[in-house]
Amino acid sequence: MVTRIQVISPNGTPAPSGPRTFYLTQDRWDDYGFKTQYHLSYIDSSSRMNHIGNVKILQTNQPTSVSSVLNQPFETLSEDFCSLGQSLDYYQRLAEMPEDDRDYILSALKDVVRDRARLSRFQSEPGWTTSVLREVVLGEFLPLASTILEQNYSELPSLDAHFGFLMSGWSSSVEFAFDAPQVPDTRTWPERTAGGPLAELPRRISVVIGRNGSGKSTLLARLARFAHASRGDRLRPKLTQLGELTPVGLGFSRVITVSYSGFDNFQVPGLTQRERRTIAAELARGTGRFIFCGLRDIGAELDSEPNQQSENADSNAALEDRQQTTILKSAQTLSAEFARIIDRIRSHQRGPLLGRALQPILADPSFNDLRATLYGQLMQGDCEQLFLGWSTGHKIVLHAICSLVAYVEKQALVLFDEPETHLHPPLLASLMHSLRKVLSEKDAYAVVATHSPVVLQETMARHVHIISREGAQTVIQRPAAETFGENIGILTSSVFNLTSEVTDFNETLRRLARQVQNLDDLEALFDTGGLSLQARAFVMSFLASAG
């Protein structure tokens, strides 16, 4: 019988073995003389190799050494060992493993997230703080890692989500906050007992706006990489050269990027090609902590990359914001993906949440023909054929909101780039209502980059960040006045700086007035009652000044 846990040297390759075998690859990483780090991999029942992640394994009274303590195959470690995975992804991947295999490896490696009683035995060990916790703050890491491992998100305390992100080269960081003042309740007792939901101000969504090329999408892409990375990876030069996330130990249960732009070519999370390929495989299966909702076929993109033969080549690739190759999914691929998303909603009993999330969307007039039947069709019908029959806007809205219903967990972070893509403004407003509903019910958060005043109209000014360039400097500002509920025209001019001086109709009216030279004759050119009030005022002013 083959021993279930094989130990491999740093440059070694796994020996052929059967399914449900684990591999611990030694690592040359040295924590001030302690060598405790290994990389755990696993062959599943389909004989597919799965990379789980880095784990540090410590023995009581372990001395400093030039070599790893473990170098022979074994079935289980003795009681004088303990282990701690070094990333949230490690525990997410264990959670998605068959239960008997997961329980076996956690017990065999004496994992302290599963068995917290072991902590007291090792906290006084020199190698515990020096090595095992060198890149982990246990108080930050343990609750979220345990929740992810057990998939019991309801037990997770609510997160006071406030964090900053400083892009390299920017003069100041973007400070994201998602709270809002509590609304006082001055109703009489009979009015309160009459029922109805309490009013509250919009929260949970921060919005980033700015001109084309200001760095909005780059900000979201880098934020995805930092939010997904472990605390240790956030401190490595591969990421510190791109920016800084504070607090550095802030963890998210899941990071969900949403982008339906055909030109999106930003790097996905992962500092090495192996990590990125693992994430791509997880995306294809609909698993993992990073979820991508959009048109790109990230798995196909990474498959097309040449294998990096050196760590330096891998490091250089990690420093790039954009990938060289972009491959888009076909309509058939997207429809099959949509069907898998709906299957996940069904299997995770999230149908009721989907029904509530669809309410704002179905209220849009464009859904008149689908309103009565859509939910039932999604829960029981052929979703691939349904998807192929919808318009582009309906495909995007339903793919996005169903993905969020399927994957958002407590303490998840959603990064939505330009939700207005392909959407009529009223449908965009409905999508934002649905997004906020999912975030509220799941206790999660979103950062949205947009050019749309419709999104701002649904957002408080305290949650809006304006990115602008002043010479070589990038500056972060807040709107001068409240944006929530403001007139679209005022938002367009005051926040997006669209004024008559920069629009083409001004020059067209100027040429018309110069050529026609008579207001009545000019008005007669328009068959809907003449010029608008603003255009008429402009022409009258021009004619008066010219006369």
UniProtKB/TrEMBL annotation:
<keyword id="KW-0067">ATP-binding</keyword>
<dbReference type="Pfam" id="PF13304">
    <property type="entry name" value="AAA_21"/>
</dbReference>
<keyword id="KW-0547">Nucleotide-binding</keyword>
<protein>
    <submittedName>
        <fullName>Energy-coupling factor transporter ATP-binding protein EcfA2</fullName>
    </submittedName>
</protein>
<dbReference type="GO" id="GO:0005524">
    <property type="term" value="F:ATP binding"/>
</dbReference>
<feature type="domain" description="AAA+ ATPase">
    <location>
        <begin position="202"/>
        <end position="471"/>
    </location>
</feature>
<dbReference type="InterPro" id="IPR003593">
    <property type="entry name" value="AAA+_ATPase"/>
</dbReference>
<dbReference type="InterPro" id="IPR027417">
    <property type="entry name" value="P-loop_NTPase"/>
</dbReference>
<dbReference type="InterPro" id="IPR003959">
    <property type="entry name" value="ATPase_AAA_core"/>
</dbReference>
